[in-house]
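Archive transcription. Copying these from loose printouts into the bound notebook so they stop getting lost. Printout 1 of 2:
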Amino acid sequence: MSVFNLSNAIMGSGILGLSFAMANTGIILFVILLLGVAILSLYSVHLLLVTAKEGGSLIYEKLGERAFGWPGKMAAFGSITLQNIGAMSSYLFIVKYELPEVIRAFLRLEENSGEWYLNGNYAVVLVSIGIILPLSLLKNLGYLGYTSGFSLSCMVFFLGVLIYKKTILPCPLPFFYQHESNMSVNGSEALGLYSLQNASALDMCTPKYFVFNSQTAYTLPILAFAFVCHPEVLPIYSELKDRSRRKMQTVSNLSILAMLVMYLLSALFGYLTFYDHVEAELLHTFTKVYKFDTMLLLVRLAVLTAVTLTVPIVLFPVTHFSKYLCQPCLLFPFPQNSLCSHIE
């Protein structure tokens, strides 16, 4: 369960942008950068576990307090909260814009009819209250292991469909020539344009190994945050059965290795399907090929499910700190004590 939880914490919405990152860095450069980030993440987790052992605590805020007093505690809490808010916002952003589109596609609606269930704001509120809030109120991470396992299964399904689509889609795809097909040409120019398209088809479907362009800089943040799971490491460590630093390091190694393989495969097959024409959001690129496709609708639903079930894992360090703050509740007057009891 710990491997599922940590893997779910690592895997985020950034997986949808890895093909775009590969298209703007090249296959070899992308692999080098991703491996570098994975190694740095493993080493930083190792340092985190060593720090927890030396500091004698598995709570980030308590480690900060022992190092720098009250400012250290609040700095640790603030940094973790800001990081988790950013991650959670990206997940809810996907829910807001993808869920109404999935509903519209299942209902076979050409355009948004303006119904309330096609409103992204309502979708975020309903998902937050109906799914995220109940899971976030669970007192330990063990229960979230089942939802994390299901979330990872959804992403494995996404990867499987991505590989399958690569094998059946031709190259070049018609929308590769969208710009050329929109041009107005006369009969004498048509033959030349056709020859030009045939000549460029080989280049369009040839993978590039090293790429440097204006978009390369935008891919670096995608890769830099690919393995961020550090706020969840110590809470998972604290609930590990028969815990030891070596056992938690093994959990971290397995989780990062599994996500590294999934990242590489999803980026590679997404890139080899659309090459330089892949968009920043991989699933949106498929809409240029399919208007209504049941399998892709299921994939979009699976991705929505996966990112939704990741939010409670992301929120857990914040709730974990709330419990830490409420440990001295008995010293408070009745109203504050009652509030802490509800939080706990």
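Printout 2 of 2:
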Amino acid sequence: MRSLFPWGPRCPDRAPHDDSLPPFPDRVLDESSQPPVFLIPRRPAAAALKGLASDSKSAESTEKELPAPPARPKFYGIALPGWMGLRKERNKDTITPPTSGALQTGDGTYYEPGLGACGIVSTSSESIVAVSHIIFDAAQVGPNPNTNPLCGRKIWVTREAAPGKNVSMEVEVVDRCTGCKAPDLDFSLSVFEQLADEQQGRVLVSWAWVV
């Protein structure tokens, strides 16, 4: 075969077609020369869906099985007698007066009144009372006891004279009881006789400041 370009090199004649080679589909490749092929087994679709459903159910059961948070503890206040919470000052026997309306419980006695610490002259027929020196002195402002803020204050006193039967009355503070403990009260005889018999001399009473 001659070249179309006379100035170029002459192409060699093409080798004749070799009919001895089999067609491409019939050729056998050398398997040793091929790279190895790794097949990853696939999960069947039905099994995969079943697995997802089971995983979802297990997650739901886990959420349902979670324990409920513990309930917050409740705290309840305890009412104490007013004189138990009195603040001490000056010395161990000095306590501030109880809060208005707080219920007190102490001994009730009687005495013969006259000129009291509040500067008022009283008689046994009046509805008066002397409070403990502990409470009276704690409320004192200045050196003059006549100006004590407790002078003239009203107290509501109650005594259980019999089961289910209470006797109550209102009294006015006019004096200071030197022999009384913090919750004790010392009444005029007329007041004491309304609460108990004179022969009893000392009885348990409950009382509170009138607001």
